[in-house]
Each structure stands twice: as C-alpha cells, then as structure tokens.
Amino acid sequence: MTWLPATLLAALFQACRTAVQQRVRAELSVNAAGLVRYLYGLPVGALLLALYLGWKGASLPAIDPPFIAFCAAAGLAQIIGTNLLLMAFGYRNYVAGTAFAKTEAMQGALLAFLLLGEALSWLTIGGIALGVAGVMIVAAGGQRLRAADIVQPAALCGLGAGLGFTMTSIFIKSATLELATADKVLAALTALVLVNACQTAMQGGYVAWREREQLPRVLTTWRTSGQVGLLAAVGSACWFTGFATAPVALVRAVGQVEVIVTLGFSRFYLKEARKPGEAPGLMLVGIGVMLALIGGL
C-alpha cells in the first residue's frame, strides 16, 4: 500500500508547487518558469536518492540503455504535455482546453491496458469516469461544453496535453520495470534523477538557444524558484513511487484529489473567487476517487 500515501502526498505537493509557481511566472517566461522546476529540482532529487541509499545501505542499481531511453522519453513527454496545455490556454476557448486536458485519467486507463497490460475492476473504471467528469465540471466553471468544442484547437491541444502526461506516467512505469532492482522506491528515485537531468538539458538547451536573456533571471529568482524545484522534486518522487508500485490509471484516479487541494489553495492562498459548478464537480471527484480506491484494493 505504499502507492496510496505516496499518491496523496504527490497531489498535495503538486498543488503547492502550482500555487508557488504562479509567483515565478510573474518574473520569468513560460519556458524559463518550466526550467526552474527541473533545474532546482535536480539536486533535491539527487539528495533524496542519496538519503534513501544511505538509509537502506544499498548501492545504485545498474543503469542500462532501455532505462535511460524510457526516462528521456518520459521527460520529453512531460515537456510536450506542458507546452500543449499552455497552447490550449492561448486560444479563446480556455475552458475546453483545460477541461479536455483533464481526461488524462481515462486516457491512462486505456493506454496502460493496451501498452502495459494493466487491467482494472469495473468499479475502478466507473470511479475514474466519475472523477474525470467532476474535474471537467470544475474546469468548465459553470460553462457548458458542447460536442463542437471537441474539434476546436483548444480542445485538441488539451487532449494532446492529457496524452503527454499519460505517456509520461507510462514511460516512468516502464523505466522502473526495466531497472534491475526489486526495490520499487529505489527504482522510482533513480528514475526521478535521470528524468530531471534529461529535462534540465532539454529545457535548458531551448532557453539558452531561444531565450538567453532569461538565464540570469532563472538564477536571480533562486529563492522562489528553489521552492518550486523543491516541491516539484518531492512531488515527482511521490508520483514516481505510485507509478512504480500500482497501476498507472489507479494512481492517476486517486491523484485527482489534487483538484480539491488546488481549489483550497485558490481560495485561501491566491484569494480567488468561487466559480459556478465547483460544488457538484468536487462531489463527483470525491465519489470517483473513493470508488476507484475501493475497486483497486
């Protein structure tokens, strides 16, 4: 049952990271704000791995090319998913882009079954569907989504973002299965360090190439950026542990509690106003998470 507390903590840390990153976005470009997540998260991930190895008295498992390839693919898929989500925000139909990006739990259930052979109970599948519906209602903010919205660019980018995040989960799962160790937490932490290193190189290379003026700002905002990196690394460590020790779709389904935590932050931390549809949406999310959890136990 390691995956359950890990997933709940992952949702909490991710919600916290999102709230703190809003402050960084006021000072950095989109790509530079993404870079600080990986750049400042890398030493935190390495420290977590070192502490775990010391606590267990273990040594680093052998790293083979397939493991490296899966980690690099996971890092790239997450960057693509993030960029597609930002593209969705750029279109006028912001609601459709946001809502359809939240289909990642359903996409995860289907693709994990096809690619990893992970089967779920009907109760868990029903819980995932309810949770996705609830998240979409919250994302819509009281506005109606029409069938025509599905073919709009914002919705397509949103679906693509959900696919990118889903493939990130599947690649991480594949990487942890590839590593020659029975300790899934160790596998998750090793994957975290390598994924962050790949993302730092990829995102950092792009910023150095296209937005070189942002690099000094990445360093001068180290106080806030460091918080983002810390929360991102700890949150990712929890997500990766969940993916390594439980079905991907189940972890994503329970991780939807992040929506509840995020709305709490928006009320009490960012002082944002309440939006229509939040109460029924959150109720569906809560019921969906409970059904998914019961079906997965």
Q: Can you walk me through this structure?
A:
The structure is a single chain. This protein is mainly alpha-helical and 297 residues long. Helices cover 79% and strands 0% of the residues. The longest helix is centred in the middle third of the chain and has 27 residues, at 184-210. The protein starts with a helix and ends with a helix.
Structure at a glance:
This protein has 297 residues and is mostly helical. The chain contains 14 helices and no strands.
Mean pLDDT: 84
- Given the structure, what is the number of helices? 14
β-strand amount: under 5%
- Backbone CA Rg: 18 Å
Share of helix, binned: over 70%
Provide keyphrases for this structure:
297 residues; 79% helix; globular
List the helices and strands and how they pair.
Blueprint: H1 3-25, H2 30-39, H3 41-56, H4 65-90, H5 94-101, H6 104-116, H7 122-140, H8 153-178, H9 184-210, H10 215-220, H11 222-245, H12 248-254, H13 257-268, H14 278-296
Helix pairs in contact: 1-11, 1-13, 2-9, 2-11, 3-9, 3-11, 4-5, 4-8, 4-9, 5-7, 5-8, 6-7, 6-8, 6-12, 7-12, 7-14, 8-9, 9-11
